[in-house]
Amino acid sequence: MEMNPINKQSDDCDPDRPAHPGVFPSGEAGKSERNPAERRVDFPVSVVLPAGGTGERTGLQTPKQFCSFLGRQLISYTIQAFERVSWIQTIVVVVAKENTDLMTDIIQRFQHRKVRVVPGGSTRHRSICNGVLALGSGQDEEGGSTAERPKVVIIHDAVRPFVEEDFLYKIAMAAKEQGAAGAIRPLVSTVIATTSEGYLDHSLERAKYRASEMPQGFTYDVIHQAYQSCTESDFEFGTECLHLALQYCGTNAKLIEGPPTLWKVTYKRDLAAAESIIKEALSRTACVITGGSAQAVTLAEALQKAVGALEMELDAIPDLMGDNARYLVTEWNFIHVSISGSCLSEVEALLTALEAANRAILHPLVVILVHLSTSDELSISGRMAEPAAITDLASAAKLRNIFVYGVLLQQSKDTDCWERSVLRVAEITSALIRERSSALVGQLLQA
Known about the structure:
Oligomer: single chain
CATH class of the largest domain: Alpha Beta
Number of helices: 13
Low-confidence stretches: 1-16, 25-37, 376-383, 437-444
Largest sheet: 7 strands, mixed
CATH topology of the largest domain: Spore Coat Polysaccharide Biosynthesis Protein SpsA, Chain A
Radius of gyration: 24 Å
Order of helices and strands: EEEHEHEHEHEEEEHHHEHEHEHEHEHEHE
Helix content: 25-40%
CATH superfamily of the largest domain: Spore Coat Polysaccharide Biosynthesis Protein SpsA, Chain A
Number of domains: 2
Strand content: 15-25%
Shape: elongated
Distance between the termini: 13 Å
Number of strands: 17
Structural class: alpha/beta
């Protein structure tokens, strides 16, 4: 089966084109087990996401942070990027008062955690200030207690969904050491000044200047003092948080060049680019359901290791009950590992749950049944659903835009043979998820 690897855009590619973020974060919220130990953050970090903009530059009636991709609002993807980082304790989303109910519905629908909604102000700085003050209040709007006041506050735009943990770590650590830190990028175009008559006055030497981007990080004391000290003019017309820290706290920010993936959804064409990137990246993640079996868990761990070389990420969970039910509304691809003969009924239950969640309207879902056969015989009769049953199930699911596949893995005591078989299963599942080839629907494949 031919594989179609996705080419990542490097830093020296066309800067006017949105850069691909690699594997888009879709792991379990608050879980970072794949991250190296040196990224450990031993101080509290919180995030403020100003999301009160009207999106005038997109030319759309709906503010861009609330525009939907695949049935899910853009801001939900941004929240998820922060939520999955274990060392971030609270995410404050600041929205216009008229959008409070919409934001609350998004949080509930996609089962976001760590999130608080705070009413915004009339300008960007007023909204950010409200978010910062909420982090230091010690109480939420209902009077309940919140997490401890953060040491570092990261401020980020709600419409930059492709922020990565590596860079957040750099910002958080630099902010703790210096008091403030911010992302920068090389200027794309030369900056010029014009006369009042509309003629060229002068131009700036582009090599000496950088574009200020998000995220930006501050110690809580610095950003709080800056907002307590700034003027009404700053609140009304200012946009740069790093400048406030320098002007009112004497804190000279550490500037860190960020990756090209930090681009901001600003214009209508950016919405289409973001949707395309999200679709492509989601095809490289999946949720593995093990059923709690020790053998299935072992296989899931082996698959996680194998797909890493294929630029895929897998999250393994025992079932879709309790907190794990959120995968039904956030994930697009599911791998069900089966040991027993009851696998088909379990897949049917998964399909029923996905249909109830109304997931496959705008984008197809993929469900792959991986059956681990412990028999020495190649026959699977009595141990796994017959191919005809899988075909019937897949044909019915296809009408609901859900693609179902079956993969048989023969267990082997030979280590080399077993590793080759697991790698083959990883290649098959990766290809099926990426390609969604209708010609293979219902086929039973043997690794």
